[in-house]
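seq as requested:
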Amino acid sequence: MARQLPVPASLLIDDGAPVNLMHWHCPWETHERLIPNRLAKQFAELCERHEVKGKFSVVPMPAALGRIDQKLAGVCERRLGGFLEIVRRQVAPRFDITPELLTHLVAFDPSDGFQHVYEDAWVARASADEIADYIALALKVLAKVGLKANGVTSPWNTGHTNEKTYAEGIGRAFARVQRRKMSWFFRTSSDDKPLWPSVKWRDRKRGLKVVSVPVNAGDVFWHTQYGSVAAAKRSAKRGVDQLLSANGKQGCVRELVDAEAPVTILTHWQSLFSNGRMAGLAGLKLLLERMTKHLAGEIRWMRCGELAKLAR
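struct tokens:
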């Protein structure tokens, strides 16, 4: 059978915020607290140059510091506004925007404030109605800063033990807030084989559908957050080689293309920032240069919402 080319490709960016979530996620480690807006600007320009598309998470209440439509503790108005302006004008034209729940830290109760439980643990015991309320608030916060989401990114293990209930909550939230019939969510998977998007929940009476979009290439830039500048650069180069060799003939991306599977590549905002070293962003630049050189005609970049429509 002839190969079906091009195969879909999407770049998945987690944890987008003007702050470095690792400062709160791992307080026993040393992490920069703030992420300068030059990262967002350089990232957007790089993706535009290589015509990259995918999804970009914006955390509505990052690290429980406040709401991005109001103010964040320890973040000046200019920095927050600058980040959101770049996302609106330069990122959103190429990337679907998603909330990463609300805080990507502790759960939030509008009537009782921040809770003593992480969001993924809260979702694991929540009902579909409760999840719908939670995600509806996230969608409304994003809308107030001019960002319209069409999917959800799942922090940590969110939805692993109650995927159908989680998907139902997502579908209900989008139907309520946007009257959207189809929505999608992204979460990491433990499957070793490449996956295609798949439908996880339907309401046939109302015509609602929620699709799971998988990651088929993990974050190879995560370790650029640690060690010296030289070590971070070496780590980034190794990561790129794992995804696609210099000659374009080996690596995870090459294998996905040959298998005619979606090239869904995950990385994190803090991985690109690399604790101020920007080694991850440099690695992404090298990867995209290789992909542009060796995979022209074999892949087609698309937003995650487009990819979700290919659910099997």
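The domain at 7-223+263-275+299-308 is CATH 3.20.20.370 (TIM Barrel).
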